[in-house]
């Protein structure tokens, strides 16, 4: 753990080996290279950490982000891979992003006409998500205009239900996308998210796939056995204080937990401001000195308390909140009444992101 005088007290470590293995497996199943989504700080894992790992991976074609700000940050990291922006920029941002080499989403003739001649565009087709993009009946005209201008590089759509057991609508979306592609010149097409890769497998005519949370080791329950994906993050925080709560005393706000015996408590430097769910109060557990121990009392903004009675622990030692072979992110999400996406992307800036072999 870093020992400089002002170092962070909570750390999220990303396993390069686990990420590389996930990407390899997903690319093999999709049958194409990957456009790896690294939006929202690489799903909470740290944009710079994940970009460095992905930069050298042979199965990664490029990196995808959700906002112009993320695109600018990623371009500044010089990942050595194309950067694709998936959501519309403001008109004034278009030339800036084009100058950085960022691939731009286009979903209207106006956007197509406003692209600089050196831009590279990915036509966004709305096949049923009803969030962003051009409807299929309009997308062909827009795509042909982009091709006329010499700026059309790719086209993409997004599955709304590919992670659900019923795949009928996912296949219908793909059919609509294929109909658009059939009327355009050859380009780099991409549709499958992680759910699509796992449930639909290799799709004809696609040049890329975009596995989001699956890249980081997570799959819907009914798809977990399709590929051997490994969660890549271990979250730990330091013990900052040890003290005894006497029998009958309460702990933390609201006095929700009362000691039934003299209890040795460790105060640990992670709380809901760091993204650990406050709603996990009363259910959360952690790993201390190799043992699973309960978090007691209400989870606070900056810290939480753990029953460490009978353990040989000291201030400065690490407590594990989740990791591949212990408590999972899914466990924490369940305790907090949320999902893995929210837990991971909710990790705050006080949690230092670190890479690991």
From TrEMBL:
Any one cellular component term from GO for this entry?
Answer: cytosol
Which coenzyme or cofactor does it need?
A: pyridoxal 5'-phosphate
Gene Ontology molecular function: any one: alanine racemase activity
Gene Ontology biological process terms, A to Z: D-alanine biosynthetic process
- Tell me which UniProt keywords the record has, alphabetically: Isomerase, Pyridoxal phosphate
What EC identifiers does the entry list? 5.1.1.1
Q: Which domain of life is it from?
A: Bacteria
Q: Which residues form the active site?
A: 39 (proton acceptor), 253 (proton acceptor)
In this chain the Alanine racemase C-terminal domain maps to 232-356
Q: Name one Pfam family in it.
A: Ala_racemase_C
The pathway this protein participates in, as annotated, is: Amino-acid biosynthesis; D-alanine biosynthesis; D-alanine from L-alanine: step 1/1
Q: Does the keyword Cytoplasm apply?
A: no
PANTHER family listed in its UniProt record:
ALANINE RACEMASE, ALANINE RACEMASE, CATABOLIC-RELATED
Question: What name does this protein carry?
Answer: Alanine racemase
Could you tell me which species this protein originates from?
Deinococcus humi
């Amino acid at each position: 753990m870093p020992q400089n005088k002002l170092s962070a007290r909570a750390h999220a470590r990303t396993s390069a080996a686990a990420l590389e293995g996930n990407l390899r497996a997903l690319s093999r199943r999709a049958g194409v290279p990957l456009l790896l989504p690294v939006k929202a700080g690489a799903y909470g894992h740290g944009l710079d950490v994940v970009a460095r790992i992905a930069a050298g991976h042979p199965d990664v074609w490029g990196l995808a982000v959700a906002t112009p700000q993320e695109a600018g940050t990623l371009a500044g990291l010089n990942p050595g891979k194309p950067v694709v922006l998936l959501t519309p920029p403001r008109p004034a941002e278009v030339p800036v992003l084009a100058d950085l080499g960022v691939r731009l989403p286009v979903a209207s003739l106006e956007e197509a006409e406003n692209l600089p001649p050196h831009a590279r565009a990915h036509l966004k087709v709305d096949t049923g998500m009803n969030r962003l993009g051009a409807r299929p009946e309009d997308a062909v005209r827009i795509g042909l205009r982009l091709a006329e201008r010499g700026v059309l590089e790719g086209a993409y759509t997004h599955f709304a239900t590919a992670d659900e057991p019923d795949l009928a609508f996912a296949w219908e979306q793909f059919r609509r996308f294929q109909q658009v592609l059939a009327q355009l010149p050859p380009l780099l097409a991409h549709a499958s998210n992680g759910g699509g890769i796992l449930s639909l497998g290799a799709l004809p005519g696609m040049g890329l796939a975009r596995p989001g949370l699956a890249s980081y080791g997570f799959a819907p329950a009914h798809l977990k056995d399709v590929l051997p994906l490994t969660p890549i993050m271990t979250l730990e925080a330091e013990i900052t204080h040890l003290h005894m709560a006497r029998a009958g005393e309460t702990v933390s706000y609201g006095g929700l937990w009362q000691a039934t015996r003299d209890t040795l408590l460790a105060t640990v430097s992670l709380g809901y401001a760091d993204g650990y769910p406050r709603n996990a109060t009363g259910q959360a557990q952690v790993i201390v000195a190799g043992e699973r121990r309960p978090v007691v009392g209400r989870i606070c903004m900056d810290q939480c308390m753990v029953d460490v009675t009978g353990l040989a622990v000291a201030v400065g030692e690490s407590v594990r909140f989740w990791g591949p072979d212990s408590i999972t992110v899914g466990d924490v999400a369940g305790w907090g009444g949320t999902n893995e996406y929210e837990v991971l992307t909710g990790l705050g800036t006080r949690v230092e992101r670190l890479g690991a072999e």
